[in-house]
Each structure stands twice: as C-alpha cells, then as structure tokens.
Design brief:
This protein is mostly helical. It has helices at about 1-20, 35-45, 55-85, 95-120, 125-135, 140-170. Helix content is about 75%, strand content about 0%.
Length: about 170
C-alpha cells in the first residue's frame, strides 16, 4: 500500500528527529548531547522557533510523551513494515496507528495555534511566523490523515467481521 510506504518513511525519518531535535524541548540544556545543542541552535536561528528555546510546560509534557510512547512506536512500526513487506502493517497495530495519528495531530495543532497566536510576542514578523507554521503543518496533516486512514481500516475490518459472523449464524 502506498500510504503504508509513506508512513514507513515518515517514521524512519522521525526517529532521529525525535532523538536529536524534539528531545531538546524537554531535556535540560546541561544534559543534552553536543549535537542536540547544535541542532537546536541551528533550528532556532533558521526558523525562529521560540518553542525550541523556551518551551512552555505543556510543550515539555508533549515531548516527554513523544519520547515515552511515540519513539518506541516509530521503531516498532518500522520493524513491522520491514517484516511484512508489501502486505502493509499488521492488523494488530492498526489501533496504535489510529491513536498515534490523533495524538501527534492534536499536539501539533496545539503548537500551531500557539505559534500563530504568540509569534508577535516572541518578535517574529509575519514571514517568520508563516515559515514556522509551514514547518509544523506537515507533522499535523500526515498524522491526522493516518488517524482517518486507520480509522477507516478498522471500521471496514469490523464491518467485514460482523458480516462474516452473521453469515455463520444463518
């Protein structure tokens, strides 16, 4: 399935992003690896992402959740895809994809709203604000699409199961 291949590459790319970039939003500066510090500084200087420098508590909680739940899921999803090849992801993982899609889409939506509403307070002009919105938007759109996609797969599978069960009873 084409969508599963896209998800595979999204997760594969997101593993180092989570470890080396996103983690810096929650890990105290003195505990960060030198590469994390450099990447965070580069990201801030290039994108003016004020969340990367002075993360509010809610953002740090989102990132801790990303490290505890999402990062292991990324790894598991990559391995599952490699095991299954062109057959797509294992059905038993579909609820996790649905939950991940909701979680990642929602948390990024919160970040987008915050960036949109608070960027002027942090000294960003309109171009810088829209650049930052553009940077965050794909990490909201793809997870929400994933949630919808796996929600449809789950409903279809349950509907098929229900029809098969009725046929066996009759």
């Amino acid at each position: 399935m084409i969508a599963d291949t896209i998800y595979f590459y999204y997760f594969l790319i997101h593993i180092p992003i989570t470890v080396f970039m996103d983690a810096t939003f929650a890990i105290p500066y003195e505990w960060q690896l030198p590469i994390q510090r450099q990447l965070n500084a580069f990201h801030y200087n290039e994108n003016k992402d004020f969340l990367a420098v002075n993360s509010p508590l809610w953002m740090r909680i989102f990132v801790v959740w990303e490290l505890i739940f999402q990062l292991p899921f990324f790894i598991y999803a990559v391995v599952d895809y490699l095991r299954n090849g062109r057959k797509g992801y294992s059905v038993r993982l579909w609820p996790m994809f649905f939950l991940y899609g909701f979680n990642a889409g929602f948390t990024t939506l919160v970040c987008l709203i915050y960036v949109y509403s608070e960027s002027a307070i942090h000294g960003l002009n309109m171009t810088e604000m829209w650049n930052l919105v553009g940077l965050y938007t794909p990490t909201m759109v793809l997870p929400f699409y994933m949630m919808w996609d796996f929600g449809c797969r789950i409903v279809t599978r349950l509907t098929d199961f229900e029809l098969e069960t009725k046929e066996k009873i009759l």
